[in-house]
Amino acid sequence: MELKRVVVTGLGALTPLGNDVTSTWEAAKAGKSGAGPITHFDASKFKTQFACEVKNFNASEYISDRRKLRQLDLYAQYALVAARQAVEDSGLETMENLDRNRVGVIVAAGIGGLHTFEEEAGYYALNEDKGPKYNPFFIPKMIADIASGHISMEYGYHGPNFGVVSACASSNNAIIDAFNYIRLGKADAFVTGGAEAAIFPAGVGGFNSMHALSTRNDSPETASRPFSKSRDGFVMGEGSAVLILEELEHAKARGAKIYAEVVGGGMSADAHHITATHPEGLGAKLAMQNALDDAGMKPEDIDYINVHGTSTPVGDVSEVKAIVDLFGDAAYKLNISSTKSMTGHLLGATGAMEAIFSILAVKDDIVPPTINHEEGDDDENIDYNLNFTFNKAQARPVRAALSNAFGFGGHNASVIVKKFEE
Questions:
Q1: Global pTM?
Q2: Which CATH number does the domain housing residue 180 bear?
Q3: C-alpha pair distances (Å), 138 with each of 66, 117, 135, 142
């Protein structure tokens, strides 16, 4: 069976760096940080009091139906807005005779409606003596698949529709699923990506209790510092990133603009620990190898890796080991960067956001930086002969880019995109 080719025809994003793709990309190229004091709740008694929040977001400006708004957790609001941007950017809705039975939606979340769950659980605790009383929208607001459902209902897309949950690898898994459905001929197009909104007491407190978050409260903007010796944990982010993937001939038939081509996806499991990556990066290496094999590519064909790079002591080291082991001499000819140094960690949305950064790097031939690395802040366990694109974006030809996402539970997923050629 001849596999179909899959291209990217639309992008949407709502991030700590900007409320659309253009502003987010410009801020990333400029090396700006999205971190600041938490405003979603009073975090003064928490170990971590800062995060990378979406700014100036008023849901009613995007969703005028007040009844519908009450049915949407914040994560689903983010997803719906980013999906609208991506669909509009793609021009898919202007296509005559669009077969909506062959357009699907796969939008991931690592957690889902955490804020809704927190609010409802708190309500019950305060009203135990009166018996349980829950909002009828509690369950459909909370569940991690509901963003996909709302997007399909908005556009009448009847193709495959579900959510993916694999912690911080979730939206890479969503992209790979959509990619495979299209190239197998099961659909013409997909709305795919991820969303997350967990910057609330349960999210911050939960990660604090695991010692996973940075506590650099005196300097939030510099707290996410991947590959630096002084890194002390990740910075929580939030938002949504959505892509339109489309079968090539379907896209060409309607004259769609094409950002890049998706050519491979690889997955693996560390089978090691509930939260820690394998110390030698074995699962990460296998996911990247599987993506290369899927794409029919060699390590030297990749010019840029958007690494998972969360700024945790163990994770950064293991990912570097995986890259050096797999890429060999080619590792020293490519650029590496962790855009989490700017956006923070968007959890279930992070893979899709970093896929967008990879797509734009391929399109514009520029690699966004890893910010916050200081002279003398080198870790003896990290090979600094690699080009981590520290502190300043670098212009260079980017024929193909690989984007990594790894999640609690040992879930690993890598996606490869390259310049589109007829």
A1: 0.97
A2: 3.40.47.10
A3: 16, 7, 5, 6
Q: What phi and psi, each to the nearest 5 degrees, are found at residue 10?
A: -155, 150
* Position 172 in a domain: yes
pLDDT at 135: 84
Q: Which of 115, 308, 373, 411 is catalytic?
A: 308
Of 32, 31, 71, whose CA–CA distance to 55 is shortest? 32
Res 128 pLDDT > 70 = no
Active site residue 345: yes
204-214 residues labelled b (16+ CB within 10 A) or e (exposed): beebbeeebbb
Q: Cα 370–361–315 angle (5° rounding)? A: 40
Is the distance from CB of 251 to CB of 386 less than 8 angstroms?
A: no
- Structure confidence at residue 237 as a pLDDT band (50, 70, 90): very high
The beta strand positions in 144-238, using DSSP E, are 161-162, 189-196
Average pLDDT over residues 224-232: 98
Q: Of these residues, 40, 250, 345, 411, which one is catalytic?
A: 345
* Options 40, 115, 150, 168, the catalytic residue: 168
Report the domain count for the chain: 1
Neighbour count for residue 274 (Cβ, 10 Å): 8
Please determine, for residue 125, whether its predicted confidence score (pLDDT) is greater than 90: no
Mean pLDDT of the chain: 96
C-alpha–C-alpha distance, residues 313 and 182, integer Å: 38
Question: What are 125's two structure tokens?
Answer: 């605790």
pLDDT over 70 at 124, yes or no: no
- Which residues are paired to 227 by β-bridges? none
73-104: per-residue pLDDT in tens?
999 999 999 999 999 999 999 999 999 999 99
Q: Identify whether 2 is part of a domain.
A: no
Q: Domain span at residue 260?
A: 7-418
Answer whether residue 1 is part of any domain: no
Q: How confident is the model at residue 134 (pLDDT cuts 50, 70, 90)?
A: confident
Q: What is the DSSP string of 62-89?
A: H---HHHHHT--HHHHHHHHHHHHHHHH
Report if residue 188 sits inside a domain.
yes
Residue 239, H or E segment: strand 239-247
Q: What is the DSSP letter of 213?
A: B
For residues 50, 109, 122 and 63, what is the CA-based torsion angle, rounded to 10 degrees? 90
Structure tokens at 61: 């400006």
CA nearest to 325, candidates 317, 315, 335, 337? 317
Q: What is the pLDDT of residues 382-410, one digit of tens each?
A: 999 999 999 999 999 999 999 999 999 99
